[in-house]
Amino acid sequence: MLRSFVASDGAVLNYIDAGGNGSDVLILLHGWSQSAAMFRHQVETFSRTRRVIALDFRGHGASPKAEGGYRIHRFAVDLAELMDHAAVARASVLGSSMGNSVLWAYIDLYGTARLDRLVFVDEPASVMRQPGMTDEEAVEAGALFDAATMTTIAAQIMGPEGAATREAFLDGMITKGIPRALRAFMLAENLRADPHDVASLFVNHCAIDWRDIFHRIDRPTLVIGGRVSHVNPRSQEWIHAQVAGSELVIVEEAEGGAHFPFLEAPEAFNSVLARFLDDGAASA
Q: What pLDDT, on the 0 to 100 scale, is given for residue 280?
């Protein structure tokens, strides 16, 4: 069921709320210029056994354009306010791509008291190469480009070829054999957000260095990377090494092992996710 609430700064945020009303809650956070609809397979499967909430960030998916707030830490506040609005005392949270940055910002602001189990899907610790990074540190962080390239891409997103830029972005994140209908669906979801809004968000998202957050994570954590993702799997191995007791899964190409394994190979992805979540239920 699609629901909505008004954030403290007046932005209207829509979210999918499916499944039971019990205390076992899974929250799904999508990536940059994506949408909650891209978690359709996870909502369908996991809502049979728990309550599943998938948020459309402001200006994304079904959430209308907001006047401002296209910043990762504002999105983290939105997540906290969603949990309050939906009467969620505690939840397991899965982030995909930028959704992880929102989750890490939430931890930065609020800690882990309301979090159960965490799933990080294919996000660098720092999308942008930070000043002073060695080559090895850049690989470990998963840095994709420098500041000059980042601002050039943002300008292209806002320019007359913005849609083509975003399409090329998507093509760099999917496997070569993806079905045409699935690619078309993903592209349509990506293009729903206003280009100026997502360009601003892109710069904010890419510039943040999260490498100092991982030692603060004290919840069971699953890190998922893709063997052929544009995000170097070594960066996912590095995050795994920083989070005490975490698990690591690198999805192979034949299993949708690019940036969207939950869409490209949902059955295999859901099997991995179910095992991790069920481990938590068994130990509770």
A: 57
Q: How many residues does the chain have?
A: 284
Contact 223, 242 (CB under 8 A): no
* Residues of the chain with confidence (pLDDT) below 50: 284
Q: Which two tokens stand for residue 26?
A: 């899974």
In degrees and rounded to multiples of 5, residue 92 shows phi and psi of: -85, 145
pLDDT score for 284: 47
88, 91, 167 from 217: Cα distances, Å: 20, 15, 34
Cα 236 to Cα 27, 39, 132: the distances in Å are 21, 21, 21
Cβ atoms 195, 110 nearer than 8 A: no
H or E segment and range at residue 5: strand 2-6
E strand or H helix that includes residue 6: strand 2-6
Q: Write down the pLDDT at residue 279.
A: 78
Number of neighbouring beta carbons within 10 Å of residue 152 = 12
Position 23 scores a pLDDT of 77
Residue 119 backbone zone (phi > 0: left; psi -120 to 50: alpha; other: beta)? beta
Cα angle value 57/53/99 (rounded, 5°): 40
* Distance in angstroms (rounded) separating the CA atoms of residues 240 and 170: 26
Give the CATH number of domain 2-283: 3.40.50.1820
- Determine the pLDDT at residue 216: 96
The three-class DSSP label of residue 222 is: strand
Helix (H, G, I), strand (E, B) or coil at 122: coil
The pLDDT assigned to 20 comes to 80
Q: State the Cα–Cα distance between residues 250 and 229, nearest whole angstrom.
A: 10
Q: Identify whether the C-beta of residue 224 lies closer than 8 Å to the C-beta of residue 272.
A: yes
